[in-house]
Amino acid sequence: MKFTDDQIADIGEEIIKVLKSVYDPEIPVDIYELGLIYDVQISEDGDVKIIMTLTTPNCPVAESLPQEVKDKVGEVEGVKSVDLELTFEPSWNKDMMSEEAKFELGML
C-alpha cells in the first residue's frame, strides 16, 4: 500500500513529536529543538530516513542516542523501516538551535 502525501505529512508530524521526546543528556532540550535532526525523509512505502548529528563526535551517548531515535521512530504508526544516518557534516553549532532552545538555555 502506498501512502498519500497527506498520510506522509501525518507520519512526519508524529515522527517530529517522537523526536521532541528524545533529549540530549547533557542539555535539557530535545534533539529536535537543538537542531540535531538535519533531515527526515518518508517514502510512499513508509520507509523513513533520518539524517542526524550529535553535539560532538565524542558525545557520551554517540551509540545509545541514535539507537533510541531509531527505536522510537520505528514505533510510529505507518513507519515500516528506519534508516538512520549519523553525520558530522556540517558539524553542529549553537546557531542550529531553535529560538525556543536558545530561550530555554538562557541564550536569548
UniProtKB/TrEMBL annotation:
Residues 13-83 form the MIP18 family-like domain. Transmembrane segments: none annotated. SUPFAM superfamilies: Fe-S cluster assembly (FSCA) domain-like. It comes from the Bacteria. PANTHER family: FE-S PROTEIN MATURATION AUXILIARY FACTOR YITW. This is FeS assembly SUF system protein. It comes from Chryseobacterium luteum.
